[in-house]
TrEMBL record:
Keywords attached to this entry: Antiport, Ion transport, Membrane, Transmembrane, Transmembrane helix, Transport
InterPro entries in the cross-refs: Cation/H_exchanger_TM
Membrane-spanning residues: 7-26, 32-55, 67-86, 98-116, 173-192, 204-226, 246-272, 303-323, 329-348, 360-378, 390-411
Cell compartments where the protein resides: Cell membrane
Predominant location: membrane
Source superkingdom: Bacteria
Name assigned to this protein: Sodium:proton antiporter
Record domain Cation/H+ exchanger transmembrane: where: 22-408
Recorded topology in the membrane: Multi-pass membrane protein
Organism placement in taxonomy: Bacteria, Pseudomonadati, Pseudomonadota, Gammaproteobacteria, Oceanospirillales
Length: 422
């Protein structure tokens, strides 16, 4: 009997999807999570005699684009779900930790990571900025384990709220620095003195200001427009809400596509659009409508997550990391264990809340598939001399994050539970 690769694909994928339904088997474990198991499964599959072809983004344009589009898709689905999940309205005090994480921690992280990339690994100026922009954001996909449960479900403590809203907003706000890396790569810099001021000012007003503001404005406007239609006499709510999943996909894709079309940041717009939809129904009889679209986003996200975890596990053992240097490993370790925890904890000191909450928020800066999207996107826009090194550092950092944050998230939940009881 001949073993066909497409048969292996369907069998393995089916088993992985089924694995997400086995939560009771490992849900009580302190150190085992679904992403860890599926990551290991992907590695074992790649090492088996029936291994599927490995999608190496450095091997071909097709493979690079495949990773770019799949990671882009899972991020926008995760952002829509995160925006729908949060019950608490945005405010200076209500989201105090979020604002600190966005305004202080992320920019400082970009500066430190860029410095480490240059000083330890020898990356170019453009390469170090790309590495920093890709690794600075908290991932909205893998951070689901420490985010709020969903609309109207409660459990919206400061830790879960802060991590959810940070992940929802910082992906869009990191994009300006990905564009900065692309701009710098086009300058062929030998030193900082070679940076062209005119192009830098164009980046400031276009990529840093216009695209961010347009992402926020378009997301809010489209969120309200879609909500008005959905809850009108012609919309899905009037028809009994039978197409809530389709409503989610339609609104998410329309918001993302239209915002990108007019030059705004689609990631930012998707999250803001979902927040606008929640604001539209807050306090009305339709408020519970958000539960089903959120559930649907969660299911779609798990499907894509399973496939991407298999890919990550396979690419990690396929030879892509064979040239990993101690310096590259050191940058990844410093990011996970020092840069994010220390910077975040220091910046959060003036905020309200317990030391335990601030410590957990600082520690749980999970890195994930948004990182791979940024690198693949930048790679498609310009040539980076150190792109292999950037991919290796990012892959190791995300794998470390899956293990470290996956194992410590259960510990964090128990700590929070004990703190509440006391």
């Amino acid at each position: 009997m001949t073993i066909e690769l497409h048969d292996v694909f369907y069998i393995v994928t089916g088993l992985v999807f089924a694995g997400f339904t086995f939560v009771p088997l490992y849900g009580k474990s302190m150190f085992v999570t679904a992403p860890i198991l599926f990551l290991i499964a992907g590695a074992l599959l790649a090492l088996s005699p029936v291994a599927l072809p490995v999608i190496d983004p450095l091997e071909s344009v097709l493979y690079r684009d495949t990773i770019e589009y799949l990671t882009e898709l899972i991020v926008i689905i995760a952002l829509a779900g995160a925006g729908l999940a949060v019950d608490r309205e945005a405010g200076k005090r209500e989201w105090q930790h979020t604002w600190v994480l966005l305004v202080l921690v992320m920019p400082l992280s970009i500066i430190v990571i860029a410095y480490l990339g240059q000083s330890m690994v020898g990356l170019s100026i453009a390469g170090s900025v790309l590495l920093a922009a890709a690794l600075a954001p908290t991932d909205p996909v893998l951070a689901r384990a420490v985010q709020v449960s969903g609309p109207l479900k409660g459990e919206e403590d400061d830790v879960r709220l802060s991590l959810t809203t940070e992940a929802g907003l910082n992906d869009g706000l990191a994009f300006p620095f990905v564009h900065l890396a692309v701009v710098l790569a086009g300058m062929s810099l030998a030193s900082y003195a070679d940076i062209k001021t005119e192009e830098l000012w164009t980046w400031v007003w276009l990529d840093l200001l216009y695209r961010v503001l347009m992402g926020i404005a378009a997301g809010w406007a489209l969120g309200h427009l879609v909500s008005r239609f959905v809850f009108s006499r012609f919309g899905d709510a009037a028809a009994g809400g039978e197409n809530q999943g389709l409503v989610l996909m339609a609104s998410t894709f329309l918001t993302y596509g239209l915002t990108e079309l007019i030059g705004g940041y689609g990631f930012l717009a998707v999250f803001v659009s979902a927040r606008a939809a929640r604001a539209f129904v807050r306090g009305t009889k339709h408020e519970s409508y958000a539960a089903m679209p959120h559930w649907f986003s969660d299911q779609i996200e798990k499907v894509l997550l399973a496939l991407l975890l298999l890919w990550l596990g396979s690419v990690a053992v396929s030879g892509m990391l064979n040239s990993l240097s101690m310096a590259e490993l050191g940058v990844a370790l410093l990011l996970i264990f020092v840069v994010r925890p220390v910077l975040a904890y220091i910046c959060l000191l003036p905020t309200q809340g317990s030391r335990i909450d601030r410590g957990l928020i600082a520690m749980m800066g999970i890195r994930g598939f948004g990182t791979f999207f940024y690198v693949a996107y930048a790679q498609s826009q310009s040539d980076f001399d150190n792109i292999e090194s950037i991919w290796r550092i990012c892959i190791v950092a995300v794998i470390l994050s899956i293990f470290v944050h996956g194992m410590t998230s259960a510990v964090g939940k128990r700590v929070m539970g004990k703190a509440k009881q006391e």
